[in-house]
Amino acid sequence: MEATLRWVLITAIAPVAWGTNYYVTHAYLPAETPLYGAALRALPAGLLLLAVRRRRPHGSWWWKAAVLGVLNMGGFFALVYVAAQLLPTSTASTIMAASPVVMMLIAWELVAERPGLLPLLGAAAGIGGVCLMLLTGSVTADLRGVLASVAALLMSSLGYVLTKRWGAGTDLLASTSWQLIAGGLLLLPLAAAVEGAPPALDGPAVLGFGYVTVVATALAFAAWFAGLRHLPAATVGLVGLLNPVTGVLLGTAVAGESLTSRQICGLVLVLAGILLGRPAARRKPTGVPSAVYGTAAAGGTASIPEVRPPRAPHQP
pLDDT confidence of 30, banded at 50, 70, 90? Predict the structure, then answer.
């Protein structure tokens, strides 16, 4: 139980950091060049992790890193920026809140993680909580933005589950760096073609990109992918609902406003959903040594030693 809670807390670093990214991006980064913003977020973060863990891709990871870089970073970042330009943040965040269910279904097919009743109930509670916090009933939606959000949702959910499937046996920081670099290299020519010359950055923008690069990208994705290695995809998807929660709490704190009763109810629902989706602790079978059970519970192949009756004393 302690190990599971530890990995849930580590995974939570990612959505909390992504939630703060809304404010930093809005307050300090240039809004007119979103593709350059995404490239400047992904590529330096990837190079930073590569400097920490100096390992190049090998074998099939050359194409796997490219695929995951498109799904998790390059294409995803671009679609999110399109959605952010066309939709209110509340609408885009509510659409993305469906990611736990999508991740459960994809993980069921690709990594044989059949969703249980409690994670499904947790997803329903979490999505309902996000809707309570963000939707006011007076929001209009641009169809192009909705399609971009749905595409980003499907793309990232598939990418996260593929990362879980392909990541076994690879170095976590190295594989994360390869994906970020591949995504950044994809975005650079696209940004040059669409947005022209790179934007000029002032001091606050440089500091903002520093935060986004180190905390909201390098650290966040490393924590997120670590969670995918140690937790079911359903649990990781539910922890991701802390992203809009953080955005709401930070936005309220910055504006100096208090949470409404509707937002508080939504927050409670999201937290309840995350708790429902947490993996249940395995009960130790009676009479099984702790070391043997620990190996088996962790997915090992240890077997229970055979117990033989004592040999009868030798009779002359």
Answer: confident
Dump pLDDT digits (tens) for 132-145.
Answer: 877 766 556 778 88
Say what the alpha-carbon torsion angle 162, 167, 172, 177 is, to the nearest 10 degrees.
-50
* pLDDT tens-digit series, residues 286-314: 454 444 444 333 333 333 344 444 444 44
Res 48 pLDDT > 90: yes
Q: Which residues contact 106 (CB under 8 A, 6 or more apart)?
A: 157, 158, 161, 233
